[in-house]
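2024-03-11 09:14:02 DEBUG pipeline.ingest accepted 1 chain
2024-03-11 09:14:02 DEBUG pipeline.ingest length=157
2024-03-11 09:14:03 DEBUG pipeline.predict start
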Amino acid sequence: MKSWIRHFIYLVLLIVLFVLSIIVGKLSAHYFSVEWRPNHLYFLLSYIIFICIGFVLGLEHFYKQIKKRGKWHCNLPKLLLIGLPAFYVSLSNLIIFSYIDFLNNTIGAPLIYLYQSSGGGYVNLTQIIFGLTLITGFYKDGKELDTYQDSNFNSSL
C-alpha cells in the first residue's frame, strides 16, 4: 500500500509541475507579446520546473538509495557524458536570448544553429534529462557493513 501512496504523490507532483510549466509558459508568451523581448525570469522558472520534473521521475531511484547502507558514490561517467551535455543544451534559451555577443559567438553558436533548425522544442526535454541525471547520478554501493555490528561480532570471538 505504501508504494501506491508514494507513486500517487509522484503523480500529484508531476501534475503540479506540468500545470506550473503551462502557467509560466503563458505568462512568458504574454510578456513577450507586450514587451517584444523575452523575460529571463520566465526562462529561469521554466528551467527550474523542468529540472524538478526530472527529479520527480528519479525519486524512486533516490528513495531506494537512501534505504541502503554504505557510502554515497558519484556515477561520474553518467554525470559527465549525459548530464553535462544536457546541462549545456538546456541553457539554450538563457544563452541565446541573453544578447551577450561573447556568449552567442562562443558557446552559444552551436545552440543558435540547433535552435534555428529545430524551433527549440528540445530545450525542455534536455532540462528533464538533466534533472533525472542529477538525481540518479549518485548511489550507495551497499557493501559497507555497519561498524556497530562489526564490533559486536569481533568482540564475541
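2024-03-11 09:14:41 DEBUG pipeline.report The longest strand covers residues 72-74.
2024-03-11 09:14:41 DEBUG pipeline.predict end
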